[in-house]
Amino acid sequence: MLAVGIDLAGSARRATGFCVMDGSLKVRTSVLHIDEEILLETSRAKPDVVSVDAPLCLPLGRPSLEARGPPHFRECDRELRRMGIRFFPITLGPMRMLTERGMMLKAAMEAEGLKVVESFPGSAQDILGMPRKQEGVEKLRRALIAYGIKGDIRKEGITHDELDAVTSALVGIMYLRGSYLAIGDPDEGLMILPPIRPAASPSK
Q1: All residues at 6 or more sequence positions from 148 whose CB lies less than 8 Å from its CB, including other chains
Q2: Burial group, residue 109, by CB count within 10 angstroms (0-12, 13-18, 19+)
Q3: b vs e for 142-161, b when ≥16 Cβ sit within 10 Å of the residue's Cβ?
């Protein structure tokens, strides 16, 4: 069981976090930049699933990112909003570039026969009770270690991009294990989240 997690940047000038995670939650992480190295490292890993932190589809009824006006939200975005989870809509400024890059890489990976799913580390961290990277890289790293992540998670100087890639890879492992929540419209595109467990019943 092997998952690749990618915390995709909108531009090759910025760092993309990359993580390979096995079924024991041991990780190998790195920072990549250009599309060619992202595709090469993903192909080399031979993963069972690629979990990408980037929008991988457009809202139904929207012909392109360049089109003006609605719809601005996908069904998975609306479900995040109903869950009280913060996110940036895909038509907002820099998110357009990220969405375009994510959709292109997904198509290239699927052409190689890889299974690609959309993840969102911020939502996964919220659901799992972990701090987001904005609250501190070290806090997030410790939370991932406490969850059971091993390997490069302990390396000196690990970046927030790599930690989000680790979180995306963890969602990929949950997907492979069949323990996940898929939100959105299947005809549009699904987002994969950790399962939300019901609160324990109050003791009587």
Answers
A1: 25
A2: buried
A3: ebbeeeebebbbeeeebbbb
Residue with tokens 């799992």: 128
pLDDT digits (tens, 9 = 90+) for 47-67: 999 999 999 999 888 878 777
Residue 198 has pLDDT above 50, yes or no: no
133 alpha-carbon distance from chain centroid: 14
Rounded CA gap, 115 and 3, in Å?
A: 10
Domains and CATH numbers, the chain: 2-193 (3.30.420.10)
Task: Indicate whether 175 pLDDT > 90.
Answer: yes
d(CA 101, CA 55): 9
Mean pLDDT of the chain: 92
| 3 state DSSP class of 81 | helix
3-state secondary structure 86-126: CCCCCCCCHHHHHHHHHHHHHHHHHHCCCCEEEECHHHHHH
Q: Is 18 helix (H, G, I), strand (E, B) or coil?
A: strand
How far lies 97's CA from each of 19, 22, 84, 91, 101, in Å? 22, 30, 25, 9, 6
| Closest among 110, 150, 146 to 128, alpha carbons compared | 146
Q: Quick one: how far is CA 4 from the chain centroid?
A: 10
- Tell me the C-alpha distance between 49 and 147, whole Å: 21
- Please state the rounded mean pLDDT for residues 77-100: 86
